[in-house]
Description:
Blueprint: E1 2-6, E2 9-13, H1 19-26, E3 34-39, E4 42-45, E5 54-60, H2 64-86, H3 88-92, E6 94-100, E7 103-108, H4 116-132, E8 136-142, H5 143-153, H6 156-162, E9 169-175, E10 178-180, E11 197-201, E12 204-208, H7 225-240, H8 246-254, H9 258-283, E13 288-292, H10 299-311, E14 316-321, H11 350-361, E15 370-372, E16 377-379, E17 391-396, E18 414-420, E19 426-428, E20 431-432, H12 435-450, H13 455-472, E21 482-485, H14 491-504, H15 513-523, H16 541-544
Parallel strand pairs: 1-5, 13-17, 13-18, 14-17, 18-21
Antiparallel strand pairs: 1-2, 3-4, 3-5, 6-7, 7-12, 8-9, 9-10, 11-12, 15-16, 19-20
Helix pairs in contact: 2-4, 5-6, 6-8, 9-10, 12-13, 12-14, 14-15
Amino acid sequence: MVTIKINGEEKYYEDGIKYEIIAEEYQNHFTSPIALVTVNGKIRELMKRVDRDCELDFITYDNVIGHKTYVRSAVMLMLKAIKDVAGMEAAINVKVEFTIGAGYYCSFKNGLKLEEKTIERIRDRMGELVDMDLLVTKKAYPADEAVALFRELGMKDKVSLFRYRRSSSINVYCLGDYYDYFYGYMMPSTGYVKYFDLFPYEEGMILLLPEREEPEKLPEFAPRKKLFQTLMKSEEWGKEMGIDTVGDLNNQICQGNISDMILVQEALQERRISEIARDIARRGGVKFVMIAGPSSSGKTTFSHRLCIQLRTYGMRPHPIALDNYYVNHDQTPLDDAGRPDYECLEALDVEQFNQDMSELLEGKSVRLPSFNFKTGRREYINKPTTLGEEDILVIEGIHGLNEKMSYSLPAESKYKIYISALTALNIDEHNRIPTTDNRLLRRMVRDARTRGTSADQTIAMWDSVRRGEEKYIFPYQEDADAMFNSAMLYELAVIKQYAEPLLFNIQKGDPEYHEAKRLLKFLEYFLGVSSEELPTNSLCREFVGGSCFDV
């Protein structure tokens, strides 16, 4: 018998009992299904067995880690169904790419084409596999044996990835006769993946899954065509450079091609900025360029680089941060937890902003505010601003795309830009890199350098930041006149050196420890690249330092 402490109570179980059985016993204590357990603070999958006395806790689907576990399991379920319906060759030529809302876009590679009827059969097969409640097993293979297995299966992306693996063993998951590698934890059987849909979309298909906030409800799919086109353009850039996965990136680094790769990537971004500037110039009558995007998208550097491009078209741009229109902090609205909500629209003086911008449009001189974050109050220390014929304001802030922010300004006077770090790089074909991971690491490195914020503080506030983005930024993406992807294929290899020491400072037992450990494991996939290779105007320098701009 083993003694297990749960919620302060000691209970006795047979040695070797599965955590899944204990989770079933405690499921009615939670409103969301249990995905994983923690054993003495260490995460364990439900398929594992108890082998000692311990303290046990539970992780549910509505937790970030629990939700990722559900998504990962659903992807494996889909790939197994593809193998059953269309064969192994089809399964290894499906790439899980990026998210469109709650949908995961999957593309077809190497000439693979799956017709609508075939996709319907795959979806039906997924349902059959769920009803069968097939076990998911995990086995640690010696690295050489795992590489040999994936080479035999034709998964070249994994062979390339594990060439740089430092660990002596690799965990391989098995579902029936389907073997694959997944970065992270899995549910113990297919019966747990109850909510999903699969349908054709553009040239591929969408795997629709529940969102974390409502883990037992399938949301409606919102297509977001502009976002999709921007993501596909980034995919094209990656293909042009021969970099689809982390293994491809590491190969380029080892071959000494990193300098050339950085220059080409930077040139592609500069070309896109130039295209946006040209569009603004051709429209005529644009006086306000409104830029918005989620945290750590690189809005500030983008604004500076756009200003330079606008000058080449004879315009005189003036950068303005919407943060300067914050209400004094003692007037900031409170969120449901009673904390100041700096993300909401009401945290800004919308009326004053519209009055100032309208007066500028009328040709009047206006003294624009600046916000003193040390005192928490707005100040008027700038010289008066007047808009001449060539003058244009480049306005950056999270509410820039929301019409309520600039309701008084004529539509023809505004040009809206959405910017985000839309990561096009995958770990391998079946393991995508979430955009949020890229931005979280960017913010962690930048805030440690510029504000002295520790990694655990950044991780602790990330959920709140993400909620603000979902509420105040993402709903307005498709209203943008242009979209800009600030992610660079090489950047995580650079950020790695700055992020790892910060993450290692988070100790076991800290609330942010599990997330820190996950991010450290993620960064292990990358070979490091020195920031000395970066141009001084690189968007990446907004985070690692050394920018020629005041960021």
